Amino acid sequence: MQSIHQVIGGLFQMIAASPHSQIRQKLKSSEADILPTPIRQLARAVWNIPSDRKAHTRCRAALAALVDAEMDGELALFDASVREHILECNRCASLYVELLEISLLDLFGRLPRPSSFPSPDLSFLEALHG
Questions:
Q1: Residue 93: strand, helix, or coil
Q2: pLDDT tens across 33-89, in order?
Q3: Closest Cα to residue 88, out of 115, 56, 124, 127?
Q4: Contact 44, 18 (CB under 8 A)
């Protein structure tokens, strides 16, 4: 395992050896995978590198299945790219945690239930068909 000094040194070497456009390209590519997630997040924030929209879409589509996998103890078997995206993306991580909390509350019977359900006023439908 690399020390923090080695990791930061590697990041600074990447910065010193490359023009700005090349740094952005490297941080978007798999070369950035050698950096620990917090350092990669910091570098992407510093250079204002947006997250991949396809990754967001894929992650959000998989959130319910990911929560099910975690609750079944099979999280390690789930798609690594989705798990990695959640570690890097605060928006998707927030959605994941929110969905997990709701699922756990429901599992333990602690999800708040309304005491009554409102009755909608549908009288306008009679005017349309009457």
A1: helix
A2: 667 777 777 777 777 766 667 777 888 899 999 999 988 888 777 888 788 888 878
A3: 56
A4: no
| H or E element in which residue 28 lies | helix 20-28
What does each C-alpha distance from 91 to 85, 97, 112 come to in angstroms?
Answer: 10, 10, 25
Dist CA 43 CA 91 (whole Å): 18
**Residue 30: DSSP 8-state:** G
**For the chain, what's the residue count?**
130
Q: Give the model's pLDDT for residue 122.
A: 87
- CA 61, 85, 10 angle in degrees (round to 5)? 165
Which SS3 state, helix, strand or coil, does residue 6 take?
helix
Per-residue pLDDT at 95: 92
**DSSP letter at 102?**
H
Model-level pTM?
A: 0.53
Are 94 and 58 in contact, with CB atoms under 8 Å apart?
no
Tally of CB atoms within 10 A around 102: 12
Least reliable range by pLDDT among 14-18, 31-35, 106-110 = 14-18
